[in-house]
Design a protein that fits this description.
Strand order of the largest sheet: 2-1-6-5
Number of domains: 1
Number of strands: 6
CATH superfamily: Phosphoribosyl-AMP cyclohydrolase
CATH class: Alpha Beta
CATH architecture: Roll
Distance between the termini: 39 Å
Number of helices: 1
Oligomer: single chain
Helix content: under 10%
Shape: globular
Amino acid sequence: MDTVSVEKIKFDANGLVPAIVQDAETNEVLMLAYMNEESLRLTLEKGETVFWSRSRSELWHKGATSGNVQRVVEIRVDCDADTLLILVHPAGPACHTGKKTCFYREMENPFKHKGHYGHQG
């Protein structure tokens, strides 16, 4: 697998890059958060996820308060170097609601009775 340095990451106009967090064992998507260069470097240093909280405008070490840290196994970079995929061993739920994943809800789907993507099933 090719490697990419922090300097090659394409942060957006706000200095952020989306980070998809995935359970390294189950491959379940746990959450989506954002990182700035500092939080990415801290994540690499600590071996645990550190994000940038857009609502609080501050660094956020995931699980620092709750104990539900995410130990980093691997960080992958997409083909455009503008999205990260972080594989972790979670110490507990990823979601602030206490759910394992933040993706525990499903969109209402008017096409569900027809099968996938609106095709007759």
